[in-house]
Amino acid sequence: MPSRWLALALALGTVAVSAAAGCSSSSTSSPKPSDAGSSGNFDLDGFSGIDAAEIDLLILPNESFTGFDGLHTFKVPISVYRADTDLKVTLSDSSVADLRPATYADPQADDGKYYVLTAKKAGEVTITATSRGKTVTSKLTVQAYPQARYTAGERRYQNASGADPACASCHQKAGGADHSPTALSSATDQDIASVVTTGVKTSGIPITAVQHTWTVTPTELDGLVTYLRSLPPRGYTEQ
User: Fold this and answer.
1) pTM for the model
2) Which of 8, 61, 131, 210 is the Cys-Cys partner for 186 at CB 3.0 to 4.6 Å?
3) Cβ neighbours, 10 Å, residue 203
4) End-to-end C-alpha distance for the chain, whole angstroms
C-alpha cells in the first residue's frame, strides 16, 4: 500500500504515486486515520498537527495497475478508510475484475476495510466506495500480457544472470523488501521497469542496500514486470 508520505499527501488533498520495489528494507503499512490516537492528530515522519476528523472517506490507491494473460492469477489490493457500517464497494464492470473482501495483517490497529481485486480480462474498471453519504472512486487498469512474459520473468527472478544475482536471493529472504502488488500496484509497468534497471524508486529515492542497477534484456524486463504483478499481495487474505 502507499507509503507514509503518500498517505500524508492524500490526507492533505494531493495525489502521488510510490512504489517500494527495491531490495532495501521498506515498510508497506500505511498510516490510518486511527493512527492519530487519542490526540486526534497524525504524526507522520515528522509531520504533525493534522486533524484526523478532517480526513474524509478514502480509497487507496486511487489508481492501480495489473495484468492478465489467461493463465496466471493477477491480484490487486485496495483499502477504504473512514467508512461506516453502511459501506458499499462496487465495480463498474465485473467482467474485468472480481472483488472480494479481505483481511490485512497490519500490526497497527486501524479502521480500514480491505478488498482484493482479481483480473478477469484486459480493460479498465472503476471501483466506487460509498459510505456516510460520501463517494470515492479508484481506477484499475488491466493490461493484456502474452503468456510467455511470465515464464521469462520467473526464470530471471529465480536465477542469476552474469554478475547480477537472482531477484529471489534478496526479496525472498527474511526481511526482504516487499515488491508484491501490495507495494507495486500503484506503479505503472514503465515505473517498475525503471526501478529494476536504475535502482531508483518511483518516489525518487535511490535504493542503497544493494547496487540495484541490473542488466536485463527487454524480454527479461517485460517478464519481471509481469512476474511481480502475479505475486500474491503480501499481507492480504481473501475472505
Assistant:
1) 0.75
2) 61
3) 14
4) 19
